[in-house]
Write a structure and sequence with these properties.
Length: 250
């Protein structure tokens, strides 16, 4: 693919408030990974005050392009699994679990602690927060889904917002060549794997939300995993309260 075929802007950017009328615009944004050569999006006060970068270090081609203007919080939710080395990871087992299984794995172990941190950052930020990974689909989808579940957004709305990414995946795949670090021999990125992982199927997010319910719901999981009750209250107020923030223009 020539560089002329690579979209020169974020292709999976949206205000999470479009997921539900309950939500306050300009507080939480989601996107694919930005690149220093990107054209600026039509967003007020860009870039956001806080950026949660959920990528593994091996996925990053360059220093974060917003680091001089935003506070960048690195939260590598896959803990190295985004770059699958056959000598270190059972790739076939990873794929057999499917997207839903991968999403559920993020509410366990070290990834769960990073999700707690993500909720704290969103709840306490002074200004808009952008959440992104490489595609803005899987790790971003889980992080946004958890935040919305904690804010009391209906599951149907959470799933519908997640599914919207599917239409943007061709552009996301093209941009991966611009944003993802060059691969080394014997490794491949999860983004390169065909079929389900290149889509945003509703059952995958439903599996994740069902797993939260099996743990007593989002708030019960949050508290049992070490999250503070005050964070849930603050998150609810931030996402559903009144006030001004950055917003996507029409």
């Amino acid at each position: 693919m020539s560089t002329a075929d690579i979209p020169p802007r974020l292709v999976n950017l949206r205000d999470v408030a479009t997921a539900s009328p309950l939500l306050r615009p300009g507080v939480l944004l989601r996107s694919d990974a930005p690149h220093s050569e990107d054209e600026p999006p039509g967003v007020d006060a860009w870039p956001p005050a806080v950026v949660l970068d959920l990528r593994d270090a091996a996925e990053k081609r360059e220093a974060h392009p917003y680091s001089s203007r935003s506070r960048i919080v690195d939260l590598p939710l896959l803990g190295g699994r985004a770059r699958m080395d056959p000598d270190e990871v059972d790739v076939e087992a990873f794929l057999r679990a499917g997207l839903g299984g991968m999403y559920v794995s993020m509410i366990q172990g070290q990834a769960a602690a990073l999700l707690i941190r993500a909720m704290e950052e969103i709840a306490r930020a002074d200004g808009a927060v952008l959440v992104h990974c490489t595609a803005g689909k899987d790790r971003t989808g889980v992080t946004v889904a958890l935040a919305l579940a904690l804010a009391g957004v209906p599951y149907d709305d959470i799933v519908a917002d997640y599914v919207r990414t599917a239409e943007n995946m061709p552009g996301v795949r093209a941009r991966a060549a611009r944003t993802v670090a060059a691969r080394t021999t014997g490794t491949r990125l999860a983004l390169d794997v065909p079929a389900e992982i290149l889509t945003a199927p509703a059952p995958a997010m439903e599996t994740f939300l069902d797993a939260l319910d099996a743990r007593g719901g989002a708030e019960s999981w949050f508290r049992s995993t070490g999250g503070e009750p005050g964070t849930v209250d603050a998150l609810h107020a931030r996402l559903r309260g009144r006030g001004a923030g950055s917003s996507l223009t029409a």
